[in-house]
Structures are given as C-alpha cells and as structure tokens.
Amino acid sequence: MTLPFMDTAPHPRGARIAPRFAHEGIAFGCDYNPEQWSRETWREDMALMREAGVDLVAINIFGWAEIQRPDGSFDFTRLDEVVALLHESGIRINLGTGTSSPPPWLTTRHPEILPVVADGTTRYPGGRQAWCPSSPVFRAAALEVVEAVAQRYGDHDAVELWHVSNELGCHNVHCHCDVSAAAFRVWLERRYGTIDGLNAAWGTAFWSQRYTDWNEILTPRLTLSTRNPSQLLDYRRFSSDALLEYYRAEAAIIRRHSAKPITTNFMVTAHIDGMDYATWASDMDVIANDHYLDHRLPDPHGELSFAADLVRGLAGGAPWLLMEHSTGAVNWQPVNPAKAPGQMMRDTLVHVARGADAACFFQWRASLQGSEKYHSALLPHAGTDTAQWREVRELGTVIGALGEVQGSRVVADAAVLFSWPSWWATDAENSPSSAVGYLDQVHAAHRALRDAGITADVVDPERDLRGYRLIVVPGLHVVTDAAAERLREAVASGAHTLVTFFSGIVDEHDRVRPGGYPAPWRELLGVRVVEFTPTLPDAALTLASGAGARLWAERVVAVDAEIVDRFADGPARGLPALTRRAGEGGAGDAWYLATLLDGGDYTRLVSRIAEAAGLAPEAGAGRDVEVVRRKADDGTTWRFVINHGTEGVDIVVRGTDLVAGVSVDGATTIPGGTVGIFREERA
Question: CB–CB of 51/400 below 8 Å?
C-alpha cells in the first residue's frame, strides 16, 4: 500500500517569502457558483455585483464535476467565460482548486476513497467531502485537477488569491478506514520512534493495552468502554496533520504555476474542532476564516468576537480575510433565525474591527436547489426589491469607505491563551464534569474582558507572550513544558496573569502532572490544588465577597499567595477560591481562580487585574457595546464602536466619521443597533 508522505513539520514564518494579498482597500465579496445558473444570469450578476460594490469573488469552489469529464479530459469553456466576465467587470477572483468534493463518477470507480466513521461504517456520496484524507487514490485524482487549473489560470491578471479545496475537514476530518489506520501508524512511528516510546506516551500499562508491534495499532474506533485518552489525543493530532499535508500538496502544485498568494478557509467557530489551526497558520500566505453565528450558543455574538480575535491570533496580529459569513439565516441549525435590520452591518464590522481586511459572504445568489437552498445570500430569492438587498448595497458603500483602514492592526495589550489539544482533551471521555466544556471557560474569560472594555488577542500558548500586560489562561488543560515556560517568562517581564481552574493538569501526552495542580505553575501562583470538587449544573456557589459562581470548586492550599476570596458554601466551603501572588522585582501579579464566576463578577475581577496591569478600558464599551481600535504603521488610529443594544452610547472623539463622512469633535452618540467608525485625530 502506497501512503502519502506525511511531512508534518511546521513551516516557520520567514522560511520563504509569502506573496502578499494586495487587494486595494477592504475587500467586499462572496462565493459565486455560476455552474448553477445560465449564461444570461451571469451577465445580470455582473451588473448587480458592481451595483452592490462587490470586488472579490470566489469561484470554482465546487467545480470538479463541471470541468473534468469521466474520461479524464478537461473542459474549461464555461469557467473561462466566467473568469473573463469578472475580469471585464473589474472584479478580482479568489480562485478555488475545485477539489472539495469528488464527482460521482470518481467515487463509483474508486469506492475505496470513501470515508469510514468511528463505528466502522462507510459514508457515501450524495453530500460533500466524501473522501478519506489519507487516500492516495483520491489525492492523485485531486492533484491532477489542481495541476490543470493552476496551469490554465496561474498567471491570469484577474486572479488575486488561490483557494485550496474548501473548508478542509468540515465533514471528513476523522476517517477510520484501513488506509487511515496505516497512515496513523506511520505518523505514530515518526512521532515516537519505537513501540516502547509509544507505550510510555499512551500509558498502555493501563487495562492491558501494551502494544508489541505497530500493526496492532488501530484508529480509535468505538469500543464497549471508554477509549484510551492519549490515543484519542494523538489521533486528533494525526487527523489534523493529514489534512494539513494534503493542503501542502495542493499548494505546492499551485506554486509551480503562480506567484499569487494561497490560502484555504479555516473554520474557527464553536462547532468545528477537528483542525489544530495553530499548526496550520504558518503555511498560509494569508489567514482566512469562515464564520457563522451559532444560535445554539448562549451568547452567539460573544462567540463571533472571540472567533475573530482567535483568527487574528493565528495571523500573528496581521490582517486576515473573512472568507464566508451570512447576510441572514443559515440552513444547518435546528432553528435558523433571520438577522434583524442592521445586524448584518454590525456582524460584518465586528470582524473588520477585529482585524479582517475582507468581508465576504456565502453566497452571491441564493440557490434554487440543493442542501443550501434556504441559506441566505447577498441576492435573495425575492430579488432586488427587498430590504435585504438594500442593506447589502448599504454595507458595500460602508466597506468602500473603509479603504484607508486596510493593512492596519488591532491594538491589543491583553491575551487569552487557547489551544486545540486542550479543547480535545478537556471535552473527551471521562472528565471530572461533563457539564464543564473547554469553550465554557474560554468564552467566559473572553466575554469578561470584552465587557470590561479590554481588547485581547487569542493566542497559542507556545508563542512568546512577553509584551502583553495582561494574560488570561482559562482552563488550559494540556500544557507542554515550553508553554509553561512562556507564561513564566511573560510574568517575570511584568505581565499580570489570571489562571483559572483545570489548567496545567496534563502534559502533551495527556499524562497527569503529579504533586498537586496546576503543576507547571504551582510556584508561579503560590497555590496547590489537592482535589477537584465539581458541582451539579443546577447548584449555585457563593463566595465570601458575595460573588456568584457555578459548576466547579476545588480544594486549594495557599502556599505562598494572598487569599483574596473564599468559597462561602459548596464542597470547598471556607477554602480559597481566588488567590493572588504579588510580583517582585518587576514581575507581574499571578492570580488563580478556582471556579467559574458569574458574568458580572468575572468582569469586575478582570477589570481589577487590568487596572493593576495599567490597562485602561475603552470608553463606552460594555456588555452590548464593542469598542476596538486599529492602528497603522504611521500611527493613525481608527476607533470602531459597534452598538448591539437598543440604547444609544455616548463617546468623545475628535476626528472623522468614516460612515457619515463628516468631522466630529466632542461628544457623539452611537444609537442602538448602529455602528460608528472614526479616524482619530492625533494628539
């Protein structure tokens, strides 16, 4: 069996000179699927795109069946026409490789490429992404398509960006077929070198799981009991790496024919956890993300802001691209609410405020058939005589007025640490409490900062954290030695940190660090946690200060830390709930929180720590109002004020209102449900 080469080493930034995404101004764009429409409709679409201000269009995303015939020949007639029409209309192209979903003729001839899920059953064509990431048969067929597309359009003047596949791993990240199992074994042998090394990493002395040969190892299919957590964690790493290596294979072909930047659309969102994008980011010429409001969450807009800050963290603070979001309802949630008037504007500009240099939508024209026919689009089923179309045109005008913001960076002196391995391990089988998810902690910490008026980068714990004044570490369950040292270095250099419960519990192999939690930072924090005491979901906790909490308590020993607050009730009654170890000799304070505080109390805590760290909140920011600044290299700043509430908010600003195109000097009101964007006059 021939397996694809698994080169999973990261590509450090600076190892090659990446082409720059050089769009003029903030891009306003969409996915376009002309294969669903007639040539007459194409010409109407070009005129309407110009009317709306659309200047970047993604095409050939699902084009495989359109451009390649079963005999292997290619027919680019219709795609050539669409490319020419867009070019003539002055619309730049984000060109897809077309490989996201294989055509039925390929899976009929080669059913071995179909993915197998954890119960051992096969998933069949009829949807999308019906392919195994480790399949050499699929890869050979897909790369043939990439070669043909890249060779034909590699130097076309209209192509501004290359779009590898589409939402890699959205449906097919975890395959359990025999080919995937063989690839998993190759990955493991390269990671551990020897079978003894693997046994030590996985703790296979437990439950008589010791392996004597690589061929004994399978992917973690469903078992009668719970599965080995270290095996699960490594399988998730392998699955992410397999798709990353596939991306690299497509990108390598494109680079032979084109000097244009290459990316793929990440899915940094609460319901997609299959890819560790921190390991992908350095391979992208520009970071791009798809994001949709998830109304299954208690705070969809809070998650939107969090996701944008995480994407910016993946981009190293550089501008990024919002490749997809929606004008209104999606079609894949149990209930799909339409957006309220003005909400599309606010949602879009939250992304721009938090670093996006492109605001693109799925899709241009609402489909009449298929699984996404009820998904909203820039041009709705009801046509142009609609409030939605008028809002699209208004948004296009506003995006067009923000061209000067392009290339600037978000101002953030705080950071929230986030890692996909911690997400995977925390939410795996056999945790202390299934009521506490990793994102519960992360979203709560980010929301507390946002409500306190503090803009935070969301960053990988392995990066250099020096330079941040405030670092929040919410539930970072998996901590490597390197990550532990990064936080210690930052605090020693003056950063103030807040570490919350269930952090620093295991190493990268999901092996508990003994001696009391959180072992990597016991000395830093001056505490020792001896026992978890999670509570039932409906049980409220109270602290001595009167603050409310829930879901979790711990039996904490304050070894070398001030006890700031105690549990007034619950299983840890009388014991420390919040501690602080004061920094010495220029070091920052180190706080430990042993529970999940209620929203307002959490906000007050981070405000207190931020003040000690010298961080001033953004005036006017609060639970319903986001205030974020972007700053150019020359010192020019822009202040974004997004008011999600119903009441107006007053701010003081001197500069230019980019939305209204007027000068402002003094108190200004941002009415409820609206947005203000100001170029600030320099002091």
Answer: no
Q: What is the DSSP string of 245-301?
A: HHHHHHHHHHHHH--S-EE-EE--BTTB-S--TTTTGGG-SS-EEE----TTSS-HH
| Rounded-to-integer distance, Cα 99 and Cα 592, Å | 48
Question: Are 279 and 418 found together in one domain?
Answer: no
Q: Is 167 a catalytic residue?
A: yes
| Number of domains into which the chain is organized | 3
For residues 462 and 458, give the distance between their C-alpha atoms in angstroms, rounded to a whole number.
12
Q: What is the pLDDT of residues 44-93, one digit of tens each?
A: 999 999 999 999 999 999 999 999 999 999 999 999 999 999 999 999 99
8 A C-beta contact, residue 181 and residue 218: yes
Active-site residue identified among 160, 324, 391, 508: 324
Dist CA 11 CA 15 (whole Å): 7
> Do β-strands 548-550 and 540-542 pair in parallel, antiparallel, or remain unpaired?
antiparallel
**Is residue 53 in some structural domain?**
no
Q: Is the pTM of this model over 0.90?
A: yes
Instruction: Tell whether 400 and 440 lie within a shared domain.
Output: no
Which one is catalytic: 167, 245, 303, 508?
Answer: 167
Bridge pairing between strands 288-290 and 265-266: parallel
> Do you find a cis peptide bond into 406, omega within 30 degrees of 0?
no
Q: Is the pLDDT of residue 42 over 50?
A: yes
In angstroms, the CA 34 to CA 209 distance is 53
Domain that holds residue 665: 625-680
Note whether 526 and 485 are same-domain residues: yes
The radius of gyration computed from the CA coordinates of the chain, to the nearest angstrom, equals 26
Q: Tell which residue, 198, 476, 665, has the closest CA to residue 678.
A: 665
Active site (annotated) includes residue 324? yes
Write out the two tokens for 340: 């309220």
Write phi, then psi, for 265 (nearest 5 degrees).
-90, 110
- In angstroms, the Cα distances linking 557 to 497, 522, 527, 546, 592 are 19, 10, 6, 21, 11
